[in-house]
Amino acid sequence: MKTKILLVFAMSFGLSSLSQANDNNTLNVSPTYQTRVQIAWDKASEGELPVYECGSVVSAASKMVSEKKDKNNEAQQAYKACYVDVFLHYTDAFFDLRNNTKIGENNEPIGCALYTRYLNSYTTSLETYAERFDLSAEKLNKQILANLSEPASLCQNTFN
Q1: Where are the domains of the chain?
Q2: Which residues touch 54 (CB under 8 Å, ≥6 apart)?
Q3: Distance between CA atoms of 61 and 150, rounded to whole angstroms?
Q4: Rounded to the nearest 5°, which phi and psi values hold at 103?
Q5: Percent of the chain surpassing pLDDT 90
Q6: Among 93, 30, 88, residue whose Cα is nearest residue 57
Q7: Is residue 46 within 8 Å of 91, Cβ to Cβ?
Q8: Of 92, 62, 90, 89, which is closest to residue 78 (Cα–Cα)?
């Protein structure tokens, strides 16, 4: 009997660990947006800026808000996931995949110039929608800056 209880405990612990590992690879958004956000996340994993993919998320979320079909601020969560979390994921991939972490002559990683342009173009393309979701682009930008990994945080990151 004790063996069976231990076996069940061990199996549930193992399954719980697997579940948490999966949660770390995807964002916690409603099923309405999960596929679109996952596509943006996957694009960011490739070190590619997911502007069009997040545009799809924002479009779907905007439609739900305008049609008054949004429940529990799911549209806001999806927008914020793309604006902040997907971009931070892209940031890590950008520096990791392209060897952009090497320190250049100005004591910044060599990828900083390009990264800063991408940061500005990405946030500019999405920030116009922040108010629609009762969010502040300024606060979202601060969240990005506060959570940048070391290579990106060494860049002179500013927002337009």
Answers
A1: 30-153
A2: 40, 82, 83, 86, 126
A3: 32
A4: -75, 130
A5: 47
A6: 30
A7: no
A8: 62
Token readout for 60 is: 């779907």
Rg of the Cα atoms in the chain: 19
pLDDT in tens, 115-125: 989 888 888 88
Phi and psi at residue 109, in whole multiples of 5°?
-60, 145
Closest CA to 143 of 87, 99, 100: 87
Which residue intervals of 74-149 are DSSP H helices?
74-80, 87-97, 112-127, 137-146
Residue the block writes with tokens 């076996």: 7
Provide the whole-model pTM: 0.79
Axis-axis angle for helices 31-45, 51-66 (nearest 10): 160
